[in-house]
Amino acid sequence: xxxxxxxxxxxxxxxxxxxxxxxxxxxxxxxxxxxxxxxxxxxxxxxxxxxxxxxxxxxxxxxxxxxxxxxxxxxxxxxxxxxxxxxxxxxxxxxxxxxxxxxxxxxxxxxxxxxxxxxxxxxxxxxxxxxxxxxxxxxxxxxxxxxxxxxxxxxxxxxxxxxxxxxxxxxxxxxxxxxxxxxxxxxxxxxxxxxxxxxxxxxxxxxxxxxxxxxxxxxxxxxxxxxxxxxxxxxxxxxxxxxxxxxxxxxxxxxxxxxxxxxxxxxxxxxxxxxxxxxxxxxxxxxxxxxxxxxxxxxxxxxxxxxxxxxxxxxxxxxxxxxxxxxxxxxxxxxxxxxxxxxxxxxxxxxx
Length: 352
Ligand SMILES: O=C(O)CCC(=O)C(=O)O
Ligand SMILES: [Fe+2]
Known about the structure:
It is a single chain. The chain is of the alpha+beta class. It contains seven helices and 17 strands. An eight-stranded mixed beta sheet has the order 4-5-13-10-15-8-7-6. The protein has a five-stranded mixed beta sheet with strand order 3-12-11-14-9, with no helix packed on it. A hairpin with a 5-residue loop joins strand 1 and strand 2. The termini are far apart. Residues 200, 202, 217, 222, 229, 231, 237, 277, 279, 289, 291 line the site of 2-oxoglutaric acid. Fe (ii) ion binds next to loops.
């Protein structure tokens, strides 16, 4: 058996069922660790597994509990209220995704989850700084546009509180990852000022264990640089390890799951690995989760870093504008090719 992800990579699949992870198969890393040790642990996790838990991350439990509560109240509304912010009303695929409208794995049925997506806007960023006038010509990307917000009282405030805290954590991870890649810690600071960072609220129904062709979310690799995932109480996330076995990544109180996405794999010339994962919720109960997908400012040109190309090696990927890459990948599992092609802003000149 084989699985081909959107990035074109093929991965071997040994079987279709998941087993419990062996101790240390998905490492847990404390962010309070001493810097040198922390970098060594992150290097190991990012280059060998692509998935790990972080603890002592600094995001308050009260904020996490509040966003899960906000999420539940959003999904509890009737379909008409949720469809007011349907993602097809947004030019950049933000808003509400009803169940079975997104097909992440083309070999399976559409995903069972319902979702709500929103992206960066300055009032969600507690660390925002006035930007200095840039001298370079602006690069347009296909992700130009804004969020859509439901009318639900307290929704935006609840999202903003969580988004701001998790964004600060993401910027901290960016500096640690820069160090892991042999760069100065502040190397990426200038390209994460208004980052392509998408927060996604997810609700998975309890699925029929006898219908394995429909998944909560089909097997995939994430699009952006890395994901910080808050899991609710139900274990359902599975990751495909290097031997081709599905292993469970259950929720662990006090932790987030962090995984590397395809954009950072490209940027690091595959030094960091983007690991296939899926959600199969056969717990008999509804499941909620909240991933935060972090990437650079959408106008950033991402091409393999010199420090990641060893002597005698070549860059494995062509340059991409971050926003174009994200739009193209989101569109692939959401809208028809014709709809995507008719989008005027997609005619972006890639100036390198
Ligand atoms: O819900 C989860 O645990 C994971 C969700 C996920 O993989 C995604 O939205 O990309
Ligand atoms: Fe994912």
